[in-house]
Amino acid sequence: MSIKLGVLLSGSGTNLQAIIDRIAAGTLDATIELVVSSRPDAYGIKRAQEANLQTLTLSKELYADPLVADEIIATELRMHDVDYVIMAGYMRMVHDPILAAFPNRVVNLHPALLPSFKGAHAIQDAYDYGVKVTGVTVHFADDKYDCGPIIAQQALAVEEGWTVDELEEHIHAIEHVLYPDTIQLLAEGRVSVRDNGTVEVL
């Protein structure tokens, strides 16, 4: 079954590109109905336009009231009839207008093994802490930052002597495979949230 995606981004859009590429390769049963950017100058919007995808860009002024911004986004996503909302480097929290419209269908990617190293600087924080293992988490978003039921994780052993930039490269390489793989699990209907808030993957 093919699922319809709405993608939220704020930056370069490399994870959007990974999803676009997997759809084009026929290994991801999905379509991207709308790409939303929190920044007008995000390179991810250029990637979306090059792939002939519908885009929506919100200005900084609109985000002065995050609930108003999220109401606009939720309305647009509903109009495009999306099944799942995919946060791909979206540097803002989502709030009730989106979460209520898409319960257990807002998915986030985090560059660390949650619950460790939450927040916007997870790669740097893990590096500074000197961890020997970090990784990537895909989870359903909820009303708390970098919480919500975990769908998938992949660990990465940190090599001695890596710079933080090298660590970031390896993290992104995992993201670009794990995220489309996880979205494919959603497309196949293999992911459900149990009553206790944990995720079952069949």
Task: Annotate the secondary structure layout.
Layout: E1 3-9, H1 14-25, E2 30-37, H2 43-50, E3 55-57, H3 66-79, E4 84-87, H4 96-101, E5 106-110, H5 122-129, E6 133-140, E7 150-157, H6 164-187, E8 191-193, E9 199-201
Parallel strand pairs: 1-2, 1-4, 2-3, 4-5
Antiparallel strand pairs: 5-6, 6-7, 8-9
Description of the structure:
The chain is of the alpha/beta class. It has one domain (3-201): Rossmann fold (3-Layer(aba) Sandwich). Helices cover 36% and strands 24% of the residues. The chain contains six helices and nine strands. It has helices at residues 14-25, 43-50, 66-79, 96-101, 122-129, 164-187; strands at residues 3-9, 30-37, 55-57, 84-87, 106-110, 133-140, 150-157, 191-193, 199-201. The strands form two sheets. It has a seven-stranded mixed β-sheet with strand order 3-2-1-4-5-6-7, sandwiched between helices. Helix 1 crosses helix 6. The chain is globular and about 50 Å long.
Gist of the model:
36% of the residues lie in helices and 24% in strands.
Key features?
single chain; 202 residues; alpha/beta; Rossmann fold; 7-stranded mixed beta sheet; two-stranded antiparallel sheet; 9 strands; 36% helix; 24% strand; globular
